[in-house]
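Per-record layout

source: Palleronia salina
name: Creatinine amidohydrolase
length: 233
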Amino acid sequence: MKISESNWFEVEEYLKTDDRAVLALGSTEQHAYLSLSVDSILSERVAADAAAPLGVPVFPAVAYGLTPYFMGFPGSVSLKLATYAALVRDILDSLYATGFRRILIVNGHGGNSPVQPVCAEWMEAHEGARCRFHDWWKAPKTWATVQEIDPVASHASWMENFPWTRLPGRTLPDAQKPFVPFEKLRDRNAAGVRELIGDGNYGGVYQKPDADTDRLWAVAVEETRALLDGDWA
């Protein structure tokens, strides 16, 4: 049940029997040869695929996040932490005000993780509220599947390359890029990060057969659905 494909009458009817909802968090940032919207596309799609059999509403992905280290790449957009925290809090407040009580946040961007304390603070301030923060790509079963397929995988590599994130007509390198030395990323500004990582891939081959990514996607959807449909007591 995508909110973008629903009207308010239908949501009101849903809330008579259920109070769950899914909020996807993404970003707009460089992903080498893939779409700048990879994180938003994937978080909303895995949320929608997971929620579909359950009929739980999925809200549109928040398309901007925390990505100051990629501001050396044109097209990337980053919010300040205070701005992002306020934005997520306002969204959660709105969901609570209209009747939702159990919120699964499906996060598609690692840089958004600092906002997790907002979820904890929000639950403390709202009676009966529950909020789960789910980094879909590094959840235990999903990450184990990545490691089984190819342990050399990271940002903008094959593990984010799906038919819905790749761009038609773009030629990808036919090579395995060595892992970026992450310890050198932590003390560099955006220009330094771009100098270190080059095209934006953090390490790994750029594309795998669709059979591999289909397998990964199925695990990710199942793992996300289990959180949404599991015990909220």
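summary: The first helix runs from residue 8 to 14. The two ends are 23 Å apart (CA to CA).
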